């Protein structure tokens, strides 16, 4: 499990948060063409008692708003109190993307492919750089909140790094409905953290630009499960989401559109599936041709593409067993 030290001050930007303090601090990133300065707001809850420093971040992709709402609701909870260690909470990392309803920054670059970043690089690279240099080295482990991209709806799921045993343990403690390892993507935040020895799990729930209350509650519950596991917060009562045994997925694949047309899913996300079951159809617009999408094995579906019109080969269902 993560290392712990004595209670320590946390310094971000020009601000220091001493043990026993909680504070809103900011990282200055860039200027808009209008001259307006853009800061990333960061809440730091630093307890007097020593313990791990945990990063909870959302909005690395600006249009993935469920995570932003998870952090907002946690901050709003009057009972949210850190008893031990410190929590660094970042509601929106990619401020630019958020105000543009976009995954990326205005020049089209993905911040989550730009880590660790450079001081003089593109906007995405600079955001990654400031974030890496000011936050990552002070953190013992992190929880990164995402949703499916575009119109792909992820049933609440937590992803860990196979090479990192601690990230697997944190993922299990989180108790999302689905748990599985995901390979490290070059330039991602999780990869940059892994290289610095900081375990990170990625919670994926819902789809971009849509609130999904169930996904939000599962996320809040998961974060508190982890914080409670490390005795950083008291046990919750009542809970946000019911306890369930996570389904651990060891093999997964995408089922793709067998032809172009209109895609009609016929199954609820999160369901168990059986080999040969029709999961959906892709049909032409004239009621002449239709192709079935069938389950290749017994397992579960944990992502459904909600795009109505699809091209051949487009990802429709993410399934696993
Ligand atoms: Zn994302």
Brief write-up:
With 321 residues, this protein is of the alpha+beta class.
Describe the secondary structure blueprint for this structure.
Layout: E1 10-12, E2 15-17, E3 22-31, E4 37-46, E5 53-58, H1 65-76, E6 86-90, H2 95-99, H3 123-134, E7 141-148, E8 152-160, H4 165-174, E9 178-181, H5 189-195, E10 200-207, H6 213-229, E11 247-248, E12 252-256, E13 261-265, E14 272-273, E15 278-283, E16 290-294, E17 299-305, E18 309-310, E19 315-320
Helix pairs in contact: 1-6, 4-6
This protein binds zinc ion (ZN).
Keywords:
OB fold (Dihydrolipoamide Acetyltransferase, E2P), binds zinc ion, Aminopeptidase, 2 domains, 321 residues
What does this structure look like?
Helices cover 20% and strands 33% of the residues. The protein folds into two domains: 10-229, Aminopeptidase, CATH 3.40.630; 249-320, OB fold (Dihydrolipoamide Acetyltransferase, E2P). The protein has six helices and 19 strands. The protein is α+β, with helices and mostly antiparallel strands. The longest helix is centred in the C-terminal third of the chain and has 17 residues, at 213-229. Helix 1 crosses helix 6 (213-229) and helix 4 (165-174) packs across helix 6. The strands form three sheets. Strands 3, 4, 5, 6, 7, 8, 9, 10, 11, 12, 14, 17 and 19 form a 13-stranded mixed β-sheet that branches. It has a four-stranded antiparallel β-sheet with strand order 16-15-13-18, with no helix packed on it. Strands 1-2 form a two-stranded antiparallel sheet. Bound molecules: zinc ion.
């Amino acid at each position: 499990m993560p290392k712990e030290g004595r209670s320590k001050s946390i310094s971000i930007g020009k601000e220091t948060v001493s043990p026993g303090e909680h504070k809103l601090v900011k990282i200055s990133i860039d200027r808009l063409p209008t001259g307006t300065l853009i800061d990333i707001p960061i809440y730091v809850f630093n307890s007097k008692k020593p313990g791990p420093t945990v990063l909870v971040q959302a909005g690395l992709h600006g249009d993935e708003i469920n995570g932003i709402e998870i952090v907002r609701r946690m901050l709003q909870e009057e009972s949210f109190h850190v008893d031990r260690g410190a929590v660094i909470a970042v509601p929106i990392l990619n401020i630019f993307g958020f105000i543009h309803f976009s995954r990326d920054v205005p020049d089209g670059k993905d911040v989550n492919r730009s880590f660790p970043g450079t001081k003089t690089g593109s906007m995405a690279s600079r955001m990654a750089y400031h974030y890496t240099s000011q936050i990552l080295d002070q953190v013992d482990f992190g929880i990164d909140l995402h949703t499916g991209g575009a119109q792909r709806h992820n049933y609440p799921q937590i992803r860990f790094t196979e090479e990192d045993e601690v990230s697997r343990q944190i993922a299990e403690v989180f108790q999302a409905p689905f748990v599985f390892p995901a390979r490290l993507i070059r330039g991602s935040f999780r990869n940059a953290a892994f290289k610095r020895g900081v375990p990170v799990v990625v919670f994926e729930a819902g789809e971009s630009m849509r609130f999904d209350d169930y996904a939000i509650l599962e996320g809040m519950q998961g974060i508190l499960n982890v914080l409670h596991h490390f005795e950083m917060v008291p046990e919750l009562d009542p809970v946000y989401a019911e306890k369930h045994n996570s389904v651990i997925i060891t093999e997964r694949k995408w089922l793709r559109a067998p032809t172009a047309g209109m895609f009609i899913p016929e199954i609820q996300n999160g369901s168990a599936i059986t080999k040969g079951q029709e999961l959906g159809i892709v049909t032409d617009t004239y009621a002449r041709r239709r192709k079935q999408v069938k389950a290749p094995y017994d397992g579960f579906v944990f992502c459904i593409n909600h795009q109505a019109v699809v091209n051949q080969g487009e990802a429709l269902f993410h399934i696993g067993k």
